[in-house]
Amino acid sequence: MLKNSAAYKIYDVEKEAYVSMKVRYPEVATIDTFETNEEGYLVTPEELKSGTYRIEEVKSPNLFVQPGSENALMDGETSIPLNEVTNAGTYEEAPRDSITIKVDSETAHEVEEDTGKTIIVVEVSNDEAVGSLTIEKTGEVLVDAKAAEAPVLGKVRNALSGLLNRVSNLATGEDVMEVAEGYSFTYRGRERGAEPKGRPAGKAGGRRERRSRQRRGIYC
């Protein structure tokens, strides 16, 4: 069930004018914009006469793209799927064509059981509105790690460092021996002894993986 309606105009291609129809409920009025109900369809209050008509969506439900306003993520001539993580591509306009119908004796139709009226069914689809997210990480990139010394020697050295530093702190307030870190790390983009500098470490782009379409019916 839709939380909000879509609205349409019907353009008479031959007369070059929008179609107007009379409604009698809740009050008598002439309208040229037709809205779907909560179930996602609408029935025109009057039958369309023979001719060629273009269905134009003038209002889309929230979170859906109005037909004719679609975009695609393109990398040159290639369209990038929405479920692909990439840094490439730019968004370009990719509008779908409007729906055009022809009403005549050859047009496929249904017959309403209760009234015997002829009904032409037109389905309109909307893409769900999606976007993209780019995450940029900065800083050094860890490329290697190795033990600075044998584990047993490291433990003995750290035990001795702790004892000597406690004695030294009582006397001078300073450590006299460094504690072994156990591992030596190598970073990309940093020379030995140089101050660390932030560097771009990579980008990860992602888009929502859903691309659902909402279908609605227009009954003329």
Uncertain runs: 190-212
**Helical residues, percent:** under 10%
Q: Give a count of the beta strands, DSSP E runs of length 2 or more.
A: 19
- SSE run: EEEEEEEEEEEEEEEEHEEE
Shape: rod-shaped
Number of helices: 1
How far apart the termini lie comes to: 21 Å
Structural class of the helix and strand makeup? mainly beta
Strand proportion: 35-45%
Q: What does the radius of gyration come to?
A: 34 Å
Major sheet characteristics: 5 strands, antiparallel
The oligomeric state of the chains shown is single chain
Query: Mean of the pLDDT scores?
Result: 75
Task: Compile the SSE list and pairings.
Elements: E1 7-12, E2 17-18, E3 21-23, E4 29-31, E5 34-35, E6 41-43, E7 51-59, E8 71-75, E9 78-79, E10 90-93, E11 99-103, E12 110-111, E13 118-119, E14 121-127, E15 132-138, E16 141-147, H1 151-171, E17 183-188, E18 200-207, E19 213-219
What would your notes on this structure say?
The chain is mainly β. It contains one helix and 19 strands. Strands 1, 2, 5, 7 and 11 form a five-stranded antiparallel beta sheet that branches. 7% of the residues are buried. About 10% of the residues have low confidence.
